[in-house]
Specification:
The complex is a heterodimer of chains A (119) and B (266). By secondary structure, chain A is mainly α. Chain A is built from 6 helices and 3 strands. A 3-stranded antiparallel beta sheet of chain A has the order 1-3-2. Chain A is globular, with a radius of gyration of 16 Å. By secondary structure, chain B is mostly helical. Chain B has 3 domains: 95 residues, no CATH class; 89 residues, no CATH class; 63 residues. In chain B, helix 6 runs antiparallel to helix 7. The radius of gyration of chain B is 26 Å and the shape is elongated. The chains are: A mainly alpha (119), B mainly alpha (266). At the A-B interface, helix 2 and helix 3 of A face helix 2, helix 3 and helix 4 of B.
């Protein structure tokens, strides 16, 4: 089933939510593992998002214009003795998309057990 | 919170193995996508795995825990990785071949494209050896045709791949089904299947591919008919049966291989 254009998948919403929390904490840019770690901190889940799921979602968000990315300076990575990081930044559109997603989620009718439990 | 003592080298090796597994997996599946996307994904995963190991060390987590987490992230991401490859390949359609991406996994690429040509070479060699063996019962004309088709198929592989694949299907049909030596039949069936898939793959459009498949089956059936019974063998349809079958098969293959050139506006 194809999703409606402009809507976010749960993993994409979680990425944007974590990215915005990082920005509030002062980290304007983030890298893949950094965001995976932040997503675990903000959720009940104890496991990090799978590589395939995470980088596919990051690519989709970038294509949708909700994230921008670029490679960090190679010299910086060499000085610190680690592989070069791909750094991501959330765009202004991301905040709007996340707000819309939250609104849609609240409006959606509860299903299954949630519907049964809802008074 | 107290930190654990630094892990032993053996324990660190476990995390290193998991990191290698992650890098090798990404190296494997990105061999099938364009160079830009492949290099980006490889570099991102290499960075991610390095960061995770460093983070685990800094937190004092056991290397085995980090190794399990890395391996789990690899395995859980496999469906998404494969879907990503498919999306990338669909996006690459119609673009010029990305040589750099192809050479990133040269051996695998060569094996994927040439394995059935190797099977054809083995079958052709067997045929040549049989021709020079002095066997009086050997049907020399038939074996010569098979060898010629296989050699032509190998020679044309680079320049006319669809024609080459069709010739190899034709050449491998008799060794696969009518020579009762198990290993010859196995090589023959593998070669025939690989070449048939290649011939169909190189045909544009689903309907054309189905018709090309039917054409190949007709061609093989005609050749087997001749191989098993001779042109004037038993049955009321001889000799017209094999002729009609092979003619129809060739016509289908030719028709599905012809592409209309787009009309260019003057």
């Amino acid at each position: 089933m194809r999703r409606r254009p402009g809507t976010l998948l749960p993993v994409e919403a979680a990425i944007l939510d974590a990215a915005l929390r990082m920005r509030q904490a002062g980290d304007v840019q983030f890298h893949g593992f950094g965001i995976a770690k932040m997503m675990v901190d903000g959720a009940d889940a104890a496991t990090l998002t799978a590589h395939g799921t995470l980088y596919k979602a990051l690519g989709r968000l970038e294509t949708a214009g909700l994230l921008e990315s670029n490679w960090e300076d190679a010299d910086e990575a060499v000085v610190q003795g680690r592989p070069r990081r791909r750094m991501y930044t959330v765009t202004g559109a991301a905040q709007l998309a996340l707000a819309q997603h939250r609104q849609d989620s609240r409006r959606a009718a509860p299903l299954g057990r949630a519907a049964w439990e809802t008074p | 919170m107290s930190r654990r003592a630094p892990a032993h080298d053996d324990e660190q090796d476990v995390a290193a193995i998991a990191a290698t597994l992650a890098r090798e997996w990404v190296r494997g599946y990105t061999a099938w996508v364009g160079a830009g996307a492949a290099e980006r994904r490889r570099a991102e995963i290499a960075s991610d795995v390095w960061e995770q190991r460093t983070d685990a060390r800094e937190r004092g987590a056991a290397p085995a825990t980090a190794a399990l987490s890395i391996a789990g992230r690899v395995v859980a991401g496999i469906p998404a990785d494969l879907l990503w490859v498919r999306t990338q390949r669909l996006a690459m359609r119609g673009r010029p071949a990305d040589r750099k991406a192809l050479t990133m996994n040269t051996l695998g690429h060569l094996a994927a494209r040439w394995w059935w040509a190797l099977g054809a070479a083995i079958l052709a060699t067997l045929g040549i050896v049989a021709l020079f063996s002095g066997d009086r019962d050997l049907q020399r004309v038939q074996v010569s045709i098979i060898v010629a088709a296989l050699v032509a198929g190998i020679a044309l592989r680079q320049f006319l791949p669809r024609t080459a694949a069709t010739l190899v299907v034709f050449g491998a049909a008799v060794p696969s089904l009518l020579i009762w030596a198990p290993w010859v039949m196995v090589i023959g069936i593998a070669t025939l299947s690989g070449a048939a898939v290649e011939a169909v793959r190189l045909t544009r459009g689903t309907a054309n591919r189905v018709l090309a498949g039917v054409g190949l089956i007709a061609l093989v059936a005609a050749w087997l008919w001749v191989g098993a019974s001779g042109v004037t063998g038993p049955g009321p349809l001889s000799p017209w049966g094999p002729i009609v079958l092979s003619g129809g098969g060739i016509a289908l293959l030719v028709a599905t291989g012809v592409h209309r050139r787009p009309v260019v506006a003057s």
